[in-house]
Amino acid sequence: MFALDLLSWWYGIGWAGVLHATRRRLGAVSGAFSTSTLLHTLFAPWRRIVTYPGAGLEERLQAFSDNAISRFVGFSIRFFVLLAASVAFVVLSMLGLVELIVWPLTPILAVILIVKGLL
Amino acid sequence: MDGLDLTSIRARKARLGKTIGHSGYTALLLLTFACIVGGATLAVAKIHYGYSLIGIGVLVLMPAVWWYYDLRNVPPFGNTPTGRLSGNCLALLKPNIQYSPATLWETIRSNNQVLFITNHLMLSADQLHGCFTEDPGTLSQILMLASQIADSYGSLTIEPAHLATALLESSPVVADILTRIKLTKADIVAVSDWFNRSYIATHAKPRDFGGIGRDWTSGFTPQLSRFGYNVSADIERTGGHYSTLAGSAGVHDMKSAFSQGVGSIALIGPGGIGKTSTAYALAQDVLAEAQDRALAHKQLIALDASAILSAAHRQGELEFTLTMLLNEALHAGNIMLFFDDAQLFFHNGPGSFDATQILLPAIQSRALQIIFAMTPHDYEALRANNIAFAGLLTPVVLREQPEPEIMEILADTASNFESRNHLLITYAAIKTAYTLSGRYETDIAYPGKAIRLLEQSLPHAYDRIVDAQSVEATIQQTRGVRAGAAAPVEADALLHLEDLIHQRMINQSRAVKVVSDALRRARAGVANPHRPIGSFLFLGPTGVGKTELAKAIAATYFGDESRMIRLDMSEYQQDSDVARILSDGQGEAKSLIMSVRQQPFSVVLLDEIEKAHPNILNLMLQLLDEGILTDTGGRVVSFKDAVVIATSNAGADQIRAHIEQGKELEQFESELTDQLISSGQFRPELINRFDEVVLFRPLNANELGQVVRLMLAEVNKTLGYQNISVTLTDAAVARIVEVGNDPRLGARPMRRTLQKAVENTVASKILRREANPGDHITLDANDLSV
Lengths: 119, 786
Prior knowledge:
The complex is a heterodimer of chains A (119) and B (786).
Chain A: H1 2-10, H2 13-32, H3 35-40, H4 57-118
Helix pairs in contact in A: 2-4
Chain B: H1 9-44, H2 49-69, H3 81-84, H4 87-90, H5 101-108, H6 112-120, H7 125-128, H8 139-152, H9 160-170, H10 172-180, H11 185-203, H12 222-227, E1 228-230, H13 231-238, H14 243-246, H15 249-259, E2 264-268, H16 275-289, E3 299-303, H17 305-311, H18 317-332, E4 335-339, H19 356-365, E5 369-374, H20 376-385, H21 387-391, E6 394-397, H22 403-421, E7 424-425, H23 427-440, H24 448-457, E8 465-466, H25 468-479, H26 488-495, H27 497-502, H28 509-524, E9 534-539, H29 546-556, E10 564-568, H30 577-582, H31 592-598, E11 603-607, H32 614-626, E12 628-630, E13 636-638, E14 643-648, H33 652-660, H34 669-678, H35 684-687, E15 692-695, H36 701-719, E16 725-728, H37 730-740, H38 748-767, E17 776-779
Parallel strand pairs in B: 2-5, 2-6, 3-4, 4-5, 7-8, 9-14, 9-15, 10-11, 11-14, 16-17
Antiparallel strand pairs in B: 1-3, 12-13
């Protein structure tokens, strides 16, 4: 009865749960890395560190260059964080996929290993 | 709905999950680890059994995974009771038992959820033993009710708490037990609600507050960090404790206002109503789930007036600091400012400064969201002093919430007190805190006053339990009132109050009786709680015991003669004297209202009330009617624990004439009252507001003799220091009465006569060494120097 209950769960709700768990993990990664916010504000100045243009052309150019630097810093940091998030995303997706494939094979694998050892 | 199917796969799984438990799960994981590592080692060493060991390790891992994802919390299945019973509930039930409500109770009563309910209701296992029917046929009704309770909380599963609530609610025996401890069935539901809120709070999924890059498009706020307190950061760190208020009208109104583009809000409410908590609840709500662009990811920073003031050492530095803070908040783009006790920023004074001119541009621009918390009094003062500034603020008025909501806030606050202080606060304690704070803490609003009382009651916990008695003891200690049930000794004294009063008071039996009855009614809790304990108008000639009775009540019931607050109303004959009665301590040092605030449990004696100014008498109408007065600062003071006694000599001649005709006074009371009203000495609305109008009759020679003996006891008390005592013969007493009796002044001259007659005589004897310590002197009429 125990084995039957275990196997019926393993190949039913348990297997489907692997998919849910992977999806949940990916959602958590997305939230933790603020992917949506970072994508929306990819080119925004870093922490609003900006200078305001004066009346003259030189001051305007100075402000433009300062702000461009701030935007570049912001972009760089956000880009690398998004990159890290993407890596985490890919790794977790791969792990999820492997889990999804290995899951149904696990009981069979266990039996094969036991038999192989005994032979 | 059918009964319980305890042979189902789900039930089996639940039992298996309980059998494995956390320790079994850990053991399985360890075994898996050992098998795989051992097997791998053997396999590397070319020993074939190693593969088998790895295979066994994988097989052992499978039930561990099963337990973790399924067995430890079996998900609900279908709509049958068995399908909805939570895993930990099902696991407790055995398949070979036919359950009845009684056996079901015995099975679940030790569960933590059930203990939460029974402990907070103070229902012990012994009390509840035998309270439930043993008829298995009634179980389906219990399950149906439990299912409805689960539905009402939006729970997919029937938890042990839901079963316990259903069992307790449906038992008439439990209802009787609750009645005996002054609780009701509704309180079972309230405690069940309380459990449900705690359960949701502790089992809630971690909230997404925006992740790592949330604030990267917002500016740095170093100065705001220095001078303010980041409420949102604290909520993010601790999880926040403001869920109860998150759905309140105050939070909703502020969110709506900000969403519609409002820049600044005046959050108005009396002290204790929860202005700070409401602002913090807004911060929590915004942090967790604000969808609106105007509020998304906004941080609430509370500015500290004292920190800003203390940092300003030179002229102009204060203005500079505040301007800098506003600019920083504006530039950061994700800041909402909160000015708690906003009046500190609206006028110059000790610990406060006028920042309205600095704040004005920021408020006018609407670029920054600011919340100013203030009392209605402070808001009116702001409107009076700076109408332009006040006009720019959108008022959000907090009103006192209904009792059920306040009780929820109290219960949730009690949970915080419990976890912080490691004790149990019963629901009866929470109810008592609500009731008693409503009666005795009139200076601040709910829920603040009840929370304050509950917190003050924590040191009165007995055996780490705060119950109704702890709260009553706190009120007794802090306010000097008797709130709990009368102890046997006190009850006995109350039942014989007349005898106690008569130990120091001669005759006037009717007056003594009506006052004693009022005190007994109040102490037994059957008097109207919204009026003074008793209010009496004593009419009669001078020196017949009106004031003495007031003193006797203060001494016998209230514990000390100093518990009498006495006002000579002949000193309050001007209209301006109203302020002297109502002063909040700013002007008049010792007003009536101040005295009662300090000592609410007392006798208030209003001597010669008819001489007071009509406007003061109007105040007395409110006092007698509602048991409250409002001081000049707008704070309410309760007279509901005071006995109010007004005395007057009006009608003294008629009383004397009536007595001389040999008639009884009791029948004359209403006639005299009518006479006093028609002669204009008393207004009918004033007289009608007293519980009783009592006539005091003049004392006859025999009674005056008894008064002399009472006074002699006082003289002997003084002489006791010299170890000398005095006795008067009957002739001596008669002589003092003869000399001291004045029909106009009653017993009043008697003290002077006694002093002259006895004290002078004894003094001479002491000086002549005719009286020495240890002597007992008996004085006859001839010995007296009168």
